[in-house]
Every structure is written in C-alpha cells, then in structure tokens.
Amino acid sequence: MRSFANIEEFSAAKGEHLGYSGWREVTQAQVNMFAEATGDHQWIHVDPERAADSPFGGTIAHGYLTVALLPAFITEIFSVGGLSMVVNVGLNRLRFPTPVPVGSRVRGGAELTELKNSPAGRLAWIRMTVEVDGQKKAACVADTMFLYVP
Length: 150
Fold this sequence. Notes:
By secondary structure, this protein is α+β, with helices and mostly antiparallel strands. It has a single domain, classed as Roll (Thiol Ester Dehydrase, Chain A), CATH 3.10.129. The protein contains 6 helices and 8 strands, in the order βαββαααααβββββ. The strands form 2 sheets. Strands 2, 3, 5, 6, 7 and 8 form a 6-stranded antiparallel sheet that branches. A two-stranded parallel ribbon has the order 1-4. It holds the Pfam family MaoC_dehydratas. This is MaoC family dehydratase. Belongs to the enoyl-CoA hydratase/isomerase family.
C-alpha cells in the first residue's frame, strides 16, 4: 500500500500509477447476492447450468458488481492522511472490455489522473482498472471522481 501523508503529497503523484490491490476471487455466492440486492437475475449471472452453454462457458459477474469492488480496491492501494473525509462524487467514463468469469481472480489498479481545487477540498480523478488473472484485456476501466476534504 502506498501512503501519502497529506493531500499535497498526494497531489504530487498526479500522472502516476499508484499500485495494485491484492487478488480476490469472484464467487457465485457474491454474484447471487448482488443479483438479489439489485433485482438483476439475468441467467448469464445466476444460472450456471444454462450459462455453461453460453459463449462464456459459465456464469459471469455483473458489470456493476465489478464497479462495486472499486472502493475496496482503492483502500488496499493507497491512503491519504490529514483528511476529515473522502466522498465518492461519481464516474466520468466506465467501460467493461471483457467479462469476469465466476471463479476468476480480479485486482484493481489505480492511476491519479487529475487533482483540482474545489470549495470543499480537492477533487481527484482516479482511473481504476480491474484486471482478471490470466486475461490480457481489463474487465473494467472506470474514471472515478472523489472529493478529498482536509
């Protein structure tokens, strides 16, 4: 994990890759719980028997489940000291270049692409890339925005 003492030190890392999270397995139980929480019960996610005959050869994680892992990945990759809070502001761009097969391992990578002053603190744009172990294409590329409040 990369640690920044304060927002100024973090700001100096603009344009740098900040590191990677650890690998974590995406399980069918997680996918099923996500389906319950969101009401998205599409068979490609929750029906292993039917999905076995699909082009993916099995069930795949919801794209938005992959997005939901981003905060956990970020907390493993870096920390910034001297803050009262960090607020998720949103996404500017989100893509899913390749699916995440259930049972595969994923990890997140982070790059600080921009940091600007705002009345409440500093706005940071962090490009998050979710990799699938053994695959060349990323599963998710998301330009996330956070407000860092001193």
